Amino acid sequence: MTNPSNDIAQLGDKITNIGVYGLRLASATVLGWIGAMKFTAYEAGAIEGLVASSPLTSWLYQVFSLQGASNLIGTAEIAIAALLLAGFKFPKIGLLGALGALATFVVTSSYLLTAPVTEPSLGGFPALSVVPGQFLLKDIVLLAGAVFLTGDALRRIAKSS
User: Fold this and answer.
1) Beta bridge partners of 118
2) pTM for the full model?
3) 6-26: per-residue pLDDT in tens?
4) Is residue 77 within 8 Å of residue 34, measured between CB atoms?
5) What's the CA gap between 142 and 30, in Å, rounded?
6) Alpha carbon of 86 to those of 14, 18, 38, 95, 124: distances in Å?
7) 143 to 41, 104, 117, 146: CA distances (angstroms)
8) Which residues are CB-neighbours of 140 under 8 A, at least 6 positions away?
9) Looking at the predicted structure, is the pLDDT value of residue 140 above 80?
């Protein structure tokens, strides 16, 4: 006879594993796709207000042009996406990607505190504007995903040792 609790636990493990793979692939897709967009003048202009509003990133415009700063950010995002993908096979490389994603989403989530994200016509806080407010809100979920992927990489590294 099978134990229903064991069957449920095994199903839970399978679904969790699918979720980990999905989260890694989705995070890499988001970072790679948005990173590639950073090489366009459209995206460089679109992020200018966010980057300029933050003490963490505003310095980029003192060192690079608008497009140069966007290209640098895009290069970093694409590299992080590649590291996340390599993490499917190589946990230590995946850890670098997860830490890079973690840093990226800490910075982008911080824009919720530094950029004008509320909608004045709705009375301000807690009403968020569509852009950048609601656009940035998703980065909190991506940040949580990066934390999870960091933990998963550490667990896999420990298991392989």
Assistant:
1) 128
2) 0.92
3) 999 999 999 999 999 999 999
4) yes
5) 9
6) 21, 17, 22, 10, 43
7) 26, 8, 18, 5
8) 105, 109, 112
9) yes
